[in-house]
Specification:
Blueprint (H helix, E strand, L loop, with lengths): L3 E6 L4 H15 L4 E8 L4 H6 L5 E4 L12 H23 L3 E4 L5 H10 L4 E5 L6 H6 L5 E4 L13 E3 L7 H4 L2 H7 L7 E5 L6 H17 L3 E5 L5 H11 L9 E4 L5 H6 L3 E4 L3 H9 L3 E4 L9 H11 L3 E3 L7 H12 L2 H13 L5 H11 L3
Parallel strand pairs: 1-2, 1-4, 2-3, 4-5, 5-6, 6-7, 8-9, 8-11, 9-10, 11-12, 12-13
Helix pairs in contact: 1-15, 3-4, 8-9, 8-13
Length: 370
């Protein structure tokens, strides 16, 4: 059997890294795979994650293009030229049969080197509004995987596949009852409030004010992920507003949950940012979400992701600038006071769930080497 070698690239944010890692992990289990190399920025999150994996990390330093012409531009251009040459050297040395890229600026020199060295590549973009690297390099890709149907019209590649995002298999197998038992929760209405691994101060500030009402008045369980850097401030604020929170069995507060599968599968409602990977996991969990997009996301992609979900009846929407205790509680109550509406949104989200994204992407990668 002619076993294959692959380059995987993508970095900077979890939305680029985790889909790439999911595909790399799955490829590693295939009988047709010989070796996998992850090409990424040694100063970014991908370097730490890959260090725990069974494939080699190839470092390349790159950065985003300056928005304005200045002295920074020639420095950036020289850095990208060097990164491209380094990636060409990697390709010559390790001879990959194909390259898979998920976006982020680190993937640009890798994919450009693949074009130069005539190595086929597949791209995946997780947002409704594809990133700059995907838009510019999609015409040269053998095929493109996307998470949103809306992205197809914005890419110049006739071989686009709507696969959703690669997610963990446990989203399909873990039941709500098992998830709640794992968290020592009762079998009753449960809300997850989260702003990503770093947290979201706007969401945190609103949530702090309504925890006691949700628990004591409405008897709802709350799982609150504050973000690591915000945890101490959140706890201090809660102590001032609701001193007895620590003895409230309805409330779980942590800076970060390593096992988000269990957290999301235990919930009925979520208050969340609108990153594409989060949306995929929320859909796979059948959750009615209140999306509060991060207003400074690149190309405003979170707002576009959220509006796509709302148009499909799979979530509610709240602008970051309009988020406060009253507005958030009003939206939550609109769901908890209307069981039919809650169920309709949950069902719409579940219909959008794609559990086989990883397998479909693997097929695209394997097809491009044949």
């Amino acid at each position: 059997m002619n076993k294959k070698t692959y380059f995987i690239t993508g970095g900077g944010t979890g939305g680029h890294i985790y889909p790439a890692i999911a595909v790399a992990d799955k490829l590693l289990t295939e009988d047709t795979t010989d070796k996998i190399y992850y090409v990424g920025n040694p100063n970014n999150l991908e370097a730490n994650i890959v260090s725990q994996k069974n494939y080699e990390f190839l470092p390349v330093v790159s950065s985003g293009m300056p928005r304005k012409i200045s002295l920074k531009f020639p420095i950036w251009a020289c850095r990208m030229l060097y990164a491209w040459l380094k990636c060409c050297k990697y390709i010559k040395q390790y001879k990959p049969d194909a390259v898979f890229g998920t976006g982020g600026y680190v993937s640009a020199p890798v994919l450009m080197a693949a074009i130069t060295m005539r190595v086929p590549f597949v791209m995946h973009d997780c947002d409704a509004n594809p990133g700059l690297v995907t838009r510019k390099l999609a015409p040269y890709a053998k095929s493109v995987s996307i998470a949103f149907e809306e992205a197809k019209s914005k890419l110049n590649n006739k071989n686009c596949h709507v696969n959703g995002n690669p997610i963990r298999a446990e989203f399909k197998t873990l039941t709500k009852q098992q998830a709640r038992q794992n968290l020592n929760l009762e079998d009753k209405l449960t809300i997850c409030i989260m702003g990503g691994s770093q947290g979201a101060q706007t969401i945190n500030n609103a949530a702090i004010q309504i925890l006691e009402t949700l628990s004591k008045t409405d008897n709802i369980q709350i799982i609150f992920q504050t973000g690591k850097r915000n945890y101490d401030n959140v706890i201090n604020e809660i102590k001032n507003i609701y001193p007895e929170y620590a003895n409230d069995k309805n409330i779980i507060i942590k800076p970060y949950f390593d096992d988000m599968v269990t957290v999301l599968k235990a919930c009925d409602i979520a208050v969340s940012r609108a990153g594409s990977l989060s949306i995929s996991e929320l859909c796979a969990s059948g959750i009615a979400s209140i999306f509060i997009p991060y207003p400074y996301a690149a190309a405003d992609h979170q707002r576009k992701n959220a509006k796509c979900m709302v148009e499909k009846g799979a979530g509610l929407y709240l602008e970051n600038q309009d988020t406060n205790a009253d507005s958030l509680l009003e939206l939550i109550k609109s769901l908890t006071d209307n069981p039919e509406m809650l169920k309709d949104i949950q069902n719409s989200a579940l219909k959008m769930a794609k559990y086989d994204g990883t397998e479909l992407i693997i097929k695209q990668i394997e097809d491009c080497t044949n």
